[in-house]
Amino acid sequence: MSTQATPSTxxxxxxxxxxxxxxxAGLNALEGLALALGGVYxxxxxxxxxxxxxxxxxxxxITLVALGAIPLIAARGLLLLRGWSRGPALITQIMALPVAxxxxxxxxxxxxxGIVLAVVAVTGLVLVLKPATTQDLGIRRGPRxxxxx
Length: 149
Known about the structure:
67% of the residues lie in helices and 0% in strands. By secondary structure, it is mainly α. It is elongated, with a radius of gyration of 19 Å.
């Protein structure tokens, strides 16, 4: 007898999941991983005392790790075709746009990073706002259709 609990709704296989949802989940996972890795880097450099303000580096590092969890959770929800995952995925893409703009207005290696982030954010926005994505995630549009009694 197995002690493992079975989920109430079976997770969709990769064959059933539309490609746009998989790509959107991948973009969110990429952004979440980048945030989390940046946060870990800030934490480590702060703890090693390699920055002027170790307290600020640690605070920013913890914040980035926590913010990285949001798109990672959204990516998992998208892969499982959960309707709630659309909101965090949309917010992640919207929040990435001003960061990309700031990077584009800076100098050196930050400009190509800004270009990549802008492309990822715009692609993510297009995918998350497609009506087909809303339908695939089981989100109903408009007022509920209830029969008149």
